[in-house]
What we know:
The chain has 23 helices and 37 strands.
Amino acid sequence: MSKTIVVTEKPSIANSFAEVLGVTEKEDGYMEDDNYIITWCVGHLVSLCYPEDYDPELKKWRMETLPFLPDEYRYKVIENVKKQFNVIKKLYHRSDVDEILYAGDAGREGLYIQMLVRAQAGIREGLTERVVWIDSHTEDAIRNGIQDAKPLDTEYYQNLKQAGYMRAIADSAIGINFSRVLSIKYGNLYKSKSKTATKGVIRAGRVMSAVLAMIVEREREIKNFKPTYYYKIANRISTDGGAVIGNWKVTDDSRYKDSPLLYEEKGFREEKNAKEMIAGLPDTVTIVSCEKKDVKKNAPLLFNLAELQAECSKSFKIGPDRTLEIAQSLYEKKLTTYPRTDARVLSSAIAKEIVTNIKGLSGYDAMKGYVDEILENGWYQGTEKTKYTDDSKITDHYAIIPTGDVSALSEIKYDEKAVYEVITRRFLSIFYPAAVYEKYELEMLAGTEHFFASDKVLADPGYMKVAGILKKDKNEKDLSVYENLKAGDVYDSKYVTDKGTTSPPSRYTSGSIILAMENAGNLIEDEELRAQIKGSGIGTSATRGDIYKKLIAIGYIQVEKKTQVLRPTDDGYVIYDIMKDVLPELLSPKMTAEWEQGLSEIEHGEKSRDEYQEQINEFVREKVSAIKEKNGGENYKGESLIKDTKFKCPLCGGKVTYHRKYGYKCENYIRKDEGCAFHIGPMLGILIGDKEMNDLLKKGITNRIKGWVSKSGKKFDAALRMNVDKSENKMELSFDFDAGKDKITCPKCGGEVIEGPKGFFCSNYKNGCQLNGLWKNACWVKITASDVKKLLKKQTIEKTAKTKSGKSYKKKIAYDIEKGEIYEVKK
C-alpha cells in the first residue's frame, strides 16, 4: 500500500497531525500506520556553508580573500541534528511512499527550512509533492489543510521558496563580508575605543546594523536635546455651571498669523510678547459657537505579531522574543492561530465562519459574559463587510485570533494566560458597538483672537468593556457648564500665560522598536495611523525579535528589565561611529526596508532571484572595495592601550605602566603569584587614575572616592588605603570608610553625629546622649548631612518644598536643640 509522508515543523506539531489522522505507532524520529508516515524537522536541519567549508584557508580573515561571493552557494547538514535529517532522508527514498505533504511552519522561513532538507536529502522520482498551509492546529484546520493542499510546483510556493533562499544568501553575503572587512580594517580602532576586553571583531548585519543605528541615533537625539520654552495664552470665563478655560490658537484672522514672534503657533517665544498680547485684549469674549456632538471610537484592528509584541512589552514588561515564544506555544496548543503574521484583519472566508470561534470561547469563563452578549445580539453578523475584514491586506495569514478551542486552557502557564486573554479581548472587542463620547466644542472671540475649549465624557463604553481598557479619562469634566452657552453671549474674561516646553523624543522600548522596525524605522505611536500606513518594514514578523535579542547578546544594546527601555552600550556607540564613517548605507532603515521589499517582490513574482542576488553582490563588491582603499589602503593601527607612567613600583622600584582596561602594574609583574606583586586593576566598578595612584604611593591613602559598587549592587563612598611589605613582596588594598568625611560634632556631648537610614544621631546615644529629632524627612522636605551641620550651628536653612498640586515654593527650616525637633520658621 502506498503511503503519504507528512513533514511538520517540530515533534509537538507532528503529534497534533497524528491525533487527527489516527497514527499511533511510534518509531525513532517518525510515526507510522498503513496510510501515513509523520515526521518532523527540529528547526533548521541544513544551513549555508561557511567560507572555510569551501576552502580551509578562508577560515583566516584576510583582505585579499574579500569579497566572498561564490558563484554557487553550498549547504551542509547541521551536525547536532544530523540524526533527524538522516531519518527524513531515508523516508524520502522509501519505495512504498508516493506522496510528501510539506506541513511545516506556513510562511517563507518555514517553507525554506523544508526545501533545504528536500534539496540536501533528495527525493525519489515520481513522488507527488503538496504543501499544507494552515493557520491553526485544530482538528478541522488540519483536515481541511490536508484536503486543500496545493502542489509544491504552484507558482506562489516556488516564488516563496526562492525568496527564502535569497533572504539567507543576502544575510550571509552582507554579514560575512562586512563583518570581516570592518574587523580587519578597524578592529584595532574598536579595541582602542572600547571599554571592554574585546578582540576587535565587528559584527555587521543586513537588519541588525540598521536597528542598532535607530537606537543609537535616538539616544543621542535625547542626550543632545535642548528644550525650547514658549508661552501659551489661556482665558477663563465664569458661567452659572462653573468655570470654562479656553486656549488661544492662531487663526486666519488673528493679528499674529505667520508672526515671527510665535514658536510653531504653540505660543510666543518671549513672555513679554505674550503679556503684550493679553494687555491688548478686551475684558470680554463673545461666544462664537458651542456645539454638542457624539463622537464614536471603534475597536482597534486585531493583533499581528508586531502589535502583540508591543502590547506585551507595555503591559507585561516582557521582550518581543518571549512574546513570540508564548504566541508560538498558544498556537501549538491549538488556542490561537498562526503567530508570525503581519496582517491585522480577517480574510473574508474566515469572517463568514467567525461565529464558530466566538461560540468556542463560551468555555472560557472570563469571557463567557461577553460571548453571550455578542451571540444574543447577533453582533458578529456582517463582519465580512467591516474594516476588520480585508483580503487585500493579507499576504500569507490573517490576524492572530483565538481558535475557539479552549481544551488546553487549563494547562497553560501564568504568562501564557495573560497573553491569551489580551488576544481574546482584542478579538471579541471588534464585534462590540463603538464607544461613544459626549463632547462639547466651544469657540470664543476676543477682538480678533480666538479661544477654544473642548471637553468630553464617556457616554457608552461599547467595546471598551471587553477590551479591558475602561478607565476614567483624566480630561473628563462635568459638561453641564456648557449647556447654557450659546452663540452671541458675552462673558467677562480673564487671561493668563502658561509656560510650555518642548520634550525630547521617547527612548525605544523592546515593544516600540518592533513597531518602528515594522514601519521602516518610523515609530508611529498612534494605533489608528499605523493601521493606515502600508510600507516595507525592517526584517519580518518571524525575525524581528531575534534581531533585538542578538543585539543584546553581542553587547551592542542593553535593556532595562523593569521598563523594557533600550539603550546603546559603549560598544554599540563605537560600532555605530565606525560604520557611520565607512558604511552608512548599512545603517539606513530605508535601505534595509528596500532590501526587504525586494524579497517581497520575489515572493510575488515581480523580481527574479538572479536579479536580486546581483544587486546584493554589486553592493557588497562596491563597498568592500571602498573600505579596503580607505586611508590609502592601510589598516587602522589603533591607539596603544598601554602607557608608561612617572610612578615607581613601591615593592621593587621598577617602572609602573598603565593599561586602559587593566590598570597599573609593575614592569616586573608577570601574573598572580609570579614576579613582582604590584598590580592595581579595576575594583568594584572603579579603575583609579593618576591622582589616586600618586596619593597611594606618597600617602598610602586616597581622598574619599565616590561610586564604589558592592557585590550586592549597593553604592558606597570610601577612601582606598594601601599597605606594602617589601620583604614579603606583598601589597594589600583596603577601604577606609571614615577618611575624608566631613565630621559633624554633637553640640550636647562633643561626639560625632552619624548618618543612619532614616536620620542623624550622636555616636554616644548608647551612652545617654539625648540628641534627637534630626530626621531626613522633616517639615515635608529632605534633610541632608550639610543641612544638619548648619542646623546644629543654630543656622536657618532654606529648602524647596512642593504643594499637593506640584507647585514649588521656598520654606525656612531651623532646629531646636533642647526640644529635639526640626521646625519651619514662619514669617
